[in-house]
Amino acid sequence: MKLETTNLDIADYLETDQDIQAFLLEAIHDGGSEHLLHCLSIAARAKGMTDVAKQAGVTRASLYKSLNNNANPKLETITKLLNVFNCRLTIEPITPN
């Protein structure tokens, strides 16, 4: 019997705004800036790239370019995207272990 596998797409499991917010919160705490951008891309696909681009005030092509691997989007773009998901960046002190 041949085992068939499929790719797991996390975007398929982000069904609500609360799901996306929890996902992005974990992303910011668990990884660096590249990880956050990757997770923003997943969240945008979950919500719909066209809808996210419209709400962020950018073109769909610009959104894809900003979230592409090796992209270096402006902080303004990241802030706009986070606003679409009703999130914001915050600063907190790092507590030594």
UniProtKB/TrEMBL annotation:
InterPro entries: Cro/C1-type_HTH, HI1420, Lambda_DNA-bd_dom_sf. It holds the Pfam family dnstrm_HI1420. Transmembrane segments: none annotated. Residues 49-94 form the HTH cro/C1-type domain. It comes from the Bacteria. This is Addiction module antidote protein. It comes from Rhodanobacter aciditrophus.
